[in-house]
Structures are given as structure tokens and as C-alpha cells.
Write a structure and sequence with these properties.
Blueprint lengths: L1 H30 L4 E17 L4 E16 L21 H29 L1 E4 L11 H4 L7 E5 L2 E2 L3 H13 L3 E9 L2 E8 L5 H4 L3 H5 L8 E8 L4 H4 L7 E5 L2 E2 L3 H9 L6 E7 L2 E7 L2 E5 L2 E5 L2 E5 L1 H6 L1 E4 L3 H28 L10 H14 L1 H19 L7 H14 L5 H32 L1
Antiparallel strand pairs: 1-2, 3-16, 4-5, 4-6, 6-7, 8-15, 9-10, 9-11, 11-12, 13-14
Helix pairs in contact: 1-2, 1-11, 2-10, 2-12, 2-13, 10-12, 11-12
Amino acid sequence: MSLLITIVAFLVAIGVLVTIHELGHFWAARWCDVKILRFSVGFGKALWLTRRGPDQTEWVLAAIPLGGYVKMADERDESVPVQDRLRAYNNKSVGQRSFIVLAGPAANFLLAGLLYWLLLVTGMPGLKPVIAEPRPDSVAAMAGFKAMERIVAIDGKTIDTWGEARMALLDHASAKERVEVEIEEGPGRRYARQLDLSGVSKEDLDKDFLGKVGLGVFIGRVTTVLDEVTPDGAAMRAGLKKGDRILAIDGAPIDRFEQVAAWVSSRPGQELRIDVERDGARRVAVVTPAKVKVEGKDVGRIGVRPLVDRKGTENMQIIVRANAVSALYQAFVKVIDMSAFSLKMMWRMITGDVSWKNLSGPVTIADYAGQTAQMGWIPYVNFLALISISLGVLNLLPIPVLDGGQLMYHIAEFLKGSPVSERVMAIGQQAGLAVLLGLTAFAIYNDIHRLLSG
């Protein structure tokens, strides 16, 4: 059932995004009175075909659902009847052709904006950006961050959820920058702190980079009461049970589970004396943490999970909502921010600041489609908006087989006063196709690697 949901969610996502993109080209071409021969969702063999309208345009659903196209009358591709020559794409002005090219990506950005508007009006759930206790030796701790502080702004931009905070910090971490983080310790008590992200490597960006600098999500009070003891783990072998309250380790009093985690992880293979309270009586267990490799280092694990204050966890949840008017502006800003973020990450891949492992192909996209669809309609719509922006940005890249490449030809034509030669365009198409195929192959390789590595 999970696989079926993933397949359906992926096909729906691709179908919607491709259709909207091609409709942008279609309506712009209609506006400029260009004759449209075919509107196709997908490539390859036609599974369904019908002809509609005064021009008997072919509407096609094709076998390979990874794209689409709008075929227009063009004298460079085939002979055009005399009566239709004025309606041929190549006979339109540079401005009209550029408008038609840009309309596809613009439609994707518009769709993303409408989806974000819908989410903001409905209410987007998230976690409050409240900080957990930073590790004592972490960058965050040295910068003065403390538990229960709430992030209210990063680099001057207001932050409402942990998702927004993570995105903003990822932007600065990928550039290895120092960033100003404004926090709120209590009502009316706000401070600005400098967080140095220069030590975050591109390998860290693929993992928990926030954990690397010492920032964690506070999800509620975590007690020292054990909620789960892993079967055959070090804790169970030492006699610890669910419901035990840890009081001390090696004689040092314990009042937070973070202390337990820090103590155990730093002592792999070393015998620990753990005092617990069970049924009102104090007991002692001798536990030897198992050695586990984490990022190439040995860390200790005893196989326990703490009891979390569920009410406190619920208090950490937030719904970001706006009225219909202000949501329009916020959605517009969101599309611009996400588009700029995508472009910056692409550029940083080229410069080597961000790993190419972040490039995803159809398998990963399908996986996310399935996961978000099973989580509910709000995560799925948010996923659609994000992918729609990515599709719009991708198509604006100056690669000849994409819309951005065609726009590049039109700009060159405008500057030189005549069309780019067919030879130059042919070479550009071949080079662009090679680049696109190379990127696709690398993305699919990353997909397969993720599947095999889990």
C-alpha cells in the first residue's frame, strides 16, 4: 500500500507541475496568436490523444511522465502553410517569443505562490524555534546560547518555526558565514548573538549540521525517567527497567536526561555506576556502555529512551496562519526566498561549497512525494510548492534545451540585431542535451546510492 501511495503521489505531482508549466507556454502562445500543433504531458508514445479547437490542436498524454512540451508552428522545423506563416513562432517578435518562453517557469512560480497562500490561510503547523540545552563544548554554547531560549530572527529576518530557522541557518552554513541570531529569553528580553558557522563542512550539510554547532530542538521537558529499555541492550543486561528514575551516575547528581546522554556517550566501554529510584527505593546498577561508531568516533550507548512531557511537547507546536490579504504578500516573499535559496545552493554546488550528493533525481522525489502524502494534505501541498519552485528555477538555467537557454538565444538576437545561426543553435542543443543528461545520470546515481545506503 505504501508503494502504491508513493507511485500515485509522484504521478499526481509530476502531472500537475508539468501541466501547469506547459499551460503557461500554451496560454502565452495563444495570447501572441501562435498556432499550437500539440500539447503533450509526457514524452514518447501517445497513450491518449484528442484534437480540439479551431486549429485542431493535439492534446496528448504520453508514456514517459517526466516532462512535456508545447509544439508550435515553426518554419525552422517544418513547412508551414502560407496562411499560417504570420502565426509561426519564428515570425513573432523577440519580445513575444521571450514572453512565451518565460511563461512556463512563471506558471510554476505562480502555482507555488497560490499553494503557499492556501497553506497560510489554512494554517501551517510547525515547531516553535526553542533551543534545547547546547553541548558544553559546542559553537552554540560558546556563543552564549542556552536552553529554553527562542529564536525570533536570523540576520534580521523574523523566524516563526524551526523549519524557517533551519533553512536560514543552512543558507549561512553553506557559505561558511558568521550570522546574527536574535533570541528571546523571556517577555521583552531579547539579545543578539553571533553564531560562527565557518566550521560546518559540506559533509556536515548532508547530515545534522545544527547538531554539529550544538543547536537542537526543544520539544518539551525530557525527564530522567526511562520510558523504554532496549531488549538485550547494556541497560537491560544491568537490570534497568522501564519506569526507573536515574538519580546519579558515578556519584554525580542527575536532573536532566541530557546529562545522562552526555555522560554515557563520552564513556564507551567504561563501567558506570548508575543510581536509580524504583518503587520508592534507591537501587544501583553497574552498566558498561556499548561502543558505537558515529562519524568515525566511538560513542557509548546503553539502549534507553527517556519519558518526554507530552503536554510540554504539545505546547511547542505552533500554527502559522495569516488572513487572505497578508497571506498573498507572505506567499510572494516565500516564493522569492525559496527561488533565491535554490539558485544559491546550485551555485555553491558548482563552486564546491556544497556536495553534489544533494542533487536528487526522480526516485528521491517520488520517495518524498509518498512520505508527504502519507503525512497529510498540508505536507503534500507544501512539497508540491517546493518542487514547483525547483522546476521553475531549473528551467531558467541558461542551458540550450531548457527555457533559460532559449531565452539566452533571444537576448543574443536582440543584442546583435539578427537571429543566432542554425549551426550555433545546433551545437548549443547538443551541448545542452549532454549537460542535462549528465546531471540526470548523476542525480539517478545519487538516488540509487541513497537507496542502497539507507
